Structure formats: structure tokens, C-alpha cells
Input
Amino acid sequence: MKLLSIAIPCYNSAAYMRRCIDSLLPGGEDVEIIVVNDGSSDNTLDIAEEYRERFPGIIKVVNKENGGHGSAVNVGIEQAKGLYFKVVDSDDWVSQSAYIQILDKLKELLKSGKSIDMFISNFVYEKEGEKRKKVMKYHHALPQDEIFTWKDVRHFRVGQYILMHSVIYRTNLLRDCGLRLPENTFYVDNIFVFHPLPYVKTMYYMDVNFYRYFIGRADQSVNEQVMISRIDQQIRVNKLLVDYYVAEKQHILTNGKVRKYMISYLDIITTVSSVLLIRSELEENLEKKKELWEYIKTKDKLLWVRLRMGLLGNAMNLPGKLGRKISVDGYKLCQRIFHFN
Output
């Protein structure tokens, strides 16, 4: 069995996937790198096969019909032979020194007979055109360099949350919790870092800047104009998160820290959905915003109250054009502070 499986979902990734794969090769035989070609029309598959021929004990290639990012991650989980599992997007890469530190720690824990459900590390926004890099750290919220549980988790700051870039999961936890990402849908990484949480019991945080998250390319799914054009997909994921919270509510309620974090995450996602709908300045999208909030209210009145009456919920529902302008200005301020989109 490998120590770590790393899935790289690839769709027309030929221009940048080499940097991603090359950054992961220093893991050596402890790691399997699963390159999932998701129906690319460029020479992504040729590049993947080239790496498999050069590194047959490390690289695995899966060629499939196009099904979207979630579909590629699902295949990665199915194919994984590693004790732990991580997703690295094909336009991102990792820091070698942090990578080796993390692998050494996972090996140390394994040798001592200790298993963890989720390993967390920092990620860096590699934003196009910016020299100063924003780092998402967790040392204020999480104990460092020790195994801990949810009861040890402290307060997450506004704008500080765990993303796909931050986490390595125990592979069987993902299988046991029934994680299955929807196909042909964008923004499913939000489900990836939400669905497993009620099942995560033990965690470990290492304060190293491991994952380099490239952001700023015009065609990226997280580009603001692209997100607005795909707003129905954002809303779909938002509703799926709400549905999951409601379905798992009795399980979630047994742990107050899990519940608090998951509500906070829903708050952030619903805020992003709302402000993008406002930002589009289309009347039909203002109606979609009302419908989204009504959907949450119908699904779970108490959840709706928590989201709607919080600072972000209030800011997203200010009345009239002036209210919408204030909402957007607040969003722009957050963009500058947290460097997203």
C-alpha cells in the first residue's frame, strides 16, 4: 500500500500540467500520482502517458470521458491505493520542502500506530500579476504539531476556512462517509471539504505553506465573470450543501464545534452566491437570490435564521439599489483582504 494517493484532474491541461506533476515527483515510491484525463481534446493524455512510461511505479493514468472535476475526483478516490488521499489541480503545484515534511510526518504517525482522519496545512494564493502572496494559515484556529479533535478547535476568523487545497484525508474515510461528487458541475470542491466533516474525528495541523493555488487566469472557473456566467452551478452546489446539512443534522448536532464550523462555511458560500447574483445586475438573478434564501428557509428555518440574521446574511439582504451597492462594496473589500477571485 502507498502512503499517499494524489489525484490530478486534467481537462485540456497540456500547457501547465508538467509543473504540477514535477512538483509531486519528489514524493518518490511513497506516493502514487493518479493523472485523470477527463476527456481532453489537446495532448493532455500524451503527456500523462509520457510520465507513466518514465515513472511506472509512481504515475497511474486514467483516461475517461468528460464528466467534470467532480467526476475526475470520484475516479481518483476509486482508484486510490494510498492510506491517505489528496487532490491537486493541474494548474497548481506544491512546495517541495513542505511536501517532504508532510510525508515524513505521515510516515512517523503510521510507524507509531496512530491514524488521523484529516491532515491540514497552509496554502498560498499564487495570484497572477501579484508579487505579494497571500497565505491561508490556521495557527490561530488549530493546535499545531499534535493530533487533536474537534473539541480542541478554536475560533476561525472571518474569511478563514478549510479548502480543498488545505486537506489530506484518510482514503477510507472518504469511502466510508459516502462522498460522491456530482458530475458535470463546477465548484464541487466545496462539497469535498464539507461532506466528510461530521465523520472526521482526529486531525493534525502542520503550519507549512504546502499547496500553491494558482489564481488569475481569465478562463478559470473562479474568475468572477466566469462564476457569474455559471451562477446556476454555484446555486446548485449551495443547495446541495444545505441539503446535506439538513440530512445529516442529527449526526452534526452531536458535536457543537462541527456544527458551528459547517454553519460558518454555509454562511460564506451563501454570501458568495448572493453577492454574485447582485453583482450581475440582472433582474432575473435578483429573483434567484430571493429564491435561494427562500429555499434555505423552507429546508431548515433555524439554519435560515442563523444565516440570515448574521453579519454576512444581513449585508447580502439590504433593500434597494443602495443596499445592493453596500453589499458589493463589502464584497470588494473582502476581495482585497483575502485575495480571492
Notes: The radius of gyration is 20 Å. The first strand starts at residue 2 and ends at 10. The chain is about 45% helix and 20% strand. The chain has two domains: 2-215, 224-338.
